[in-house]
Every structure is written in structure tokens, then in C-alpha cells.
UniProtKB/TrEMBL annotation:
This is Acetyltransferase. Transmembrane segments: none annotated. It comes from Alkalihalobacillus alcalophilus ATCC 27647 = CGMCC 1.3604. Residues 8-173 form the N-acetyltransferase domain. SUPFAM superfamilies: Acyl-CoA N-acyltransferases (Nat) (SSF55729).
Length: 177
């Protein structure tokens, strides 16, 4: 059975939806990434408002049969000075990616990621934290299964800027690393 979904931009008017989903996302990843609650009982996410104030960010909502199933936060056309491995002039970065537990293990995440790669063609960089083994397996599967893509470089970084695996990915033939 094929899972059907929609992927749409989240308008500023729906900021509260993303804010609530980020709470679930941060809770879900807290065991791997060490997120802590504030004294008010919420997880902080300092880039929430940036999703609508910085032109290069794209907050996207995932729905399955009209039901919210997750989100994707993108950073588009990042200059090479700010990427970890990719040396192309500009690179897209998968900032945050979340599928609700109810919709996992059905191929939804893979399909959503592939649609994002098709929609925003070019160079990609995907980082995973060192302790999030599930994310590492997921992104290797997603990138290696992308029909138009090619993994150009994968490395484990351990420096002051990042600790964990990074995949540099080319989404079409004309781009270069």
C-alpha cells in the first residue's frame, strides 16, 4: 500500500502548529541529543521565528490524508563558507526533519525527503548528531536510494562546529563538490 502525502509551506499564520510540532520533535530526540526542558516545561528552539524572517529558510508541513504527520525545515542556497563538507558555491541543508511516530516505518520519510530533493534540486548537506544512530541509518538509506543522486562525500566530523556524520549529496549532474 502506497502512502500519499502533501508537503506545503507553513505560513506565518500557522506558526503555532510548527511550534507545537517542534515540542514533539525535541522530546522525541531528547534521548539522543540531550534537549532539556526550560523552567516553563517547554523545549526551546531559537530558530522558530527565523523560519519566516529569513528568505533562505523554508518551513514545510507534511500531511497524510489531511492529518498532520510532521515537518521539514530547510535552509536553501547556503554559501560554501557555512557548509561542513560541500564546497559547491551554494548548498541546501536539511535543517530539521520530523515524522510523527504514528507515520514512521511506512516509507513516508523516504518519500518526503525524495520529493524535497526533487523540488529543490542541487547540492545538499545532511548532518546527523553523533548519538542519533536511527537518523544516521535513515539518511544513508534515503540518500543512497535517491534515483538521481550521488553521495559525493560522507565523513564523521568531531570539531568545535559539529560532532557527528555529515553527508554531502549531489542531486543532479551539473553540480560539483
Amino acid at each position: 500500500m502506497s502512502i500519499e502525502f502533501t508537503l506545503t509551506a507553513i505560513p506565518y499564520e500557522d506558526k503555532s502548529i510548527l511550534e507545537k510540532l517542534i515540542q514533539l520533535y525535541r522530546y522525541d530526540s531528547s534521548e539522543c541529543e540531550g534537549h532539556s526542558l526550560t523552567e516553563h516545561g517547554v523545549y526551546s528552539y531559537k530558530y522558530l521565528d527565523h523560519q519566516w524572517t529569513e528568505d533562505y529558510r523554508r518551513p514545510l508541513l507534511i500531511k497524510v490524508n489531511g492529518e498532520i504527520a510532521g515537518f521539514v525545515l530547510l535552509i536553501l542556497d547556503v554559501p560554501k563558507a557555512y557548509t561542513k563538507l560541500n564546497k559547491a558555491e551554494t548548498t541546501h541543508v536539511m535543517s530539521d526533519f520530523f515524522i510523527m511516530r504514528k507515520f514512521r516505518k511506512q516509507g513516508l520519510g523516504l518519500k518526503v525527503a525524495h520529493q524535497v530533493f526533487n523540488q529543490y534540486r542541487g547540492n545538499w548537506e545532511i548532518k546527523q548528531t553523533a548519538k542519533n544512530i536511527a537518523a544516521q541509518h535513515f539518511w544513508r538509506k534515503v540518500v543512497s536510494g535517491y534515483r538521481d543522486g550521488e553521495v559525493l562525500k560522507e565523513d564523521y566530523l568531531d570539531n568545535e562546529h559539529w560532532k557527528g556524520p555529515v553527508i554531502a549529496f549531489k542531486g543532479f549532474r551539473e553540480s560539483q563538490l
